[in-house]
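User: I want to check something. If I give you two sequences, will you return the structure for each one separately, not as a complex?

Assistant: Yes, each is folded on its own. Here is the first sequence with its structure:
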Amino acid sequence: MKAIATYEYRETSNPDCFTEIDIEIPQPSGRDLLVRVKAISVNPVDYKVRSSIKEKQTTPRILGWDAAGIVEAVGNEVTLFKPGDQVYYAGSITRPGSNSEYQLVDERIVGKKPINLTFEAAAALPLTTITAWEALFERLGIEPQKTSKNQASKVLIIGGAGGVGSIAIQLAKQVAGLVIIATASRPETIDWCKKMGADYTINHHQPFKTELETIGIKEVDYILCFNDTEQHLQNMADVIKPQGKICSIVETKQPLNMNVLQWKSVTFVWEFMYTKPVYETEDIQSQHDLLNQVGELVTQGIIQTTMTKNLGSLNTVNLAKAHTELESGRTIGKLVLSGINS
């Protein structure tokens, strides 16, 4: 089978940034599915992993952790799927990725592809959906239904127009019924956040406290940080309610001064969507369940795909273009590519 791989870090402007390789089609065993990849999407984790490969590898690294495709074969312990099923998933960061013709993935982290979406539109969703769902409903402990408490609660979503922010706004609004303030600084990102369901937007280049005051809000119950945890920590401390909760997905380069949260007894928690597949936690199948649940919401027209651009077939040139756009930090929604042309 064909795959798009990298042997060592190179800038996307380098024609050898990615290499097309031919390798054997892997065979499924246990709870693995063999999926014929029909479309993929890209995420910041892709270029972060690529940039971490400092020394030339003897074994090529296949990146990519978002895909939609068709089950070709199943392992001997599989119970959730059968050959021919259309699926979508993010996979595990410890295994070969989705930038290939075929991929092995544990069935417990795979969902049924929404029937009303193309493979490309479906591939835009898994990683960001899992991240946003777990951040909202597991890490922050928000009820995944429109309770009276939720409808009286405010959540600030930092980085509302990005991939995770785009689906988090929808889940927070359509599933939980929260009041949503998203950060955005450009007309096009402000419009996108409102299209996704944000009630208000504020400029993340300005002090959050001042920005919130302009829309008549003093403080928020929850914060989802999807951009630069270090830069926004003090801003978050300034506007979170006493005993409020903050969840971040963005790693830091320097230790955080958590003392700024002490007086308010604020809960700070991390979300890393690979935790369950990497450690095979007891609740690993919750990712299968939530992808199916969101898939139903998509089919019903309640949640929409966050795909904004299809860059064409998966090849070395188009994948480099996708990484270039992501590295700019100015993408809206999700970038996708169709499968490899055989």
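And separately, the second sequence with its own structure:
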Amino acid sequence: MDRAGGLRFLTVLAALFFSAAATADRDTINWDEVDLAAERRAIENFQRYDQLLQNVGWKLAQANWEFCDRVMPATGLHLQDMASYGSPQIARRALGLSGDFAVQTVAEGSPADLSNSLPSNREIVGLAGINPNEWESQGPFDWRRLARVHDLIDEAVEGYDSITLDFKDNNVAVIASVPVCATRFELMGKGKKALADGRRVVIGIEFPAFQYEEDEFAALLAHELAHNLLSHTAWLDRNKRKRRNVRMTEREADRLIPWLLANAGYDPRAGKRFFEKWGPNGDGGLFRNRSHDGWDERAEFVEAEIHQIEALIVQHDKADWRTHFQREIDPHQGLENGQR
């Protein structure tokens, strides 16, 4: 998680998890006014949404890694730090923790999941021989320490190594890593936005697609993931965010949706269904912005890719979009000599 991701994460925690009693005076908490069961339910509700996001994001990123320019090792493990909450004391007590670090989610099918040792909220006291609880925190809403821990995990598995986790109950687990497309998936605690910044895909918890069928939700993630895989942020940085340029990148991301879905085992036509379901009742913004095609046109662009994708799946079991996908933009435009 980078700095911006940490800021969004603390916003999530501030928005969701604490009542006035919880945040009024963190040094002199009136425990009679704190509903610990409600605090825990709020945390677990956020985790349910995050679980879906991580499950689907993992499937897309792992199934398409061989076609990605940027690949990273990953375990599928996501942690939480009580210092990130509005009141670390209340968070600890609500989750029954003595320290600050515990499992947030593990992506379904990932090495972390297959270890069968990482249920949500299991307390962790060691990562690669280091106890992050010994690192100083800056108090409530401190996102920096959690960012540092996730960086530690990435460093530990660099070269596709495994990482050893030590639990509060004195048990140990060794978690392997596997290649994935280099993108992280993050959940915002409020809002309907969906965005990609080159390194992350960020989805607001109120985005309607959370209530859709899983393959339609996957289509939303695939669109945002496509922006990262096709390096759209960097291309727009070099060539300016003129309406025409943004529209080309949006169209390109739309057209890559069914390729990413098919490789992950989803119905590639789910991209078309997503636009048909979301577009007519959209609240403006994403689908009515002039920098985007109309939702019905976008559905047609997705559908136009299906025949080629299905033919490639029959022949090769995978749809190699790195070789066969037709770009809307010149990905090298704006690069100086020697940067390609």
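Because they were folded independently, the notes below concern the second chain alone. The longest helix spans residues 36-63. The CA atoms of residues 216 and 314 lie 23 Å apart.
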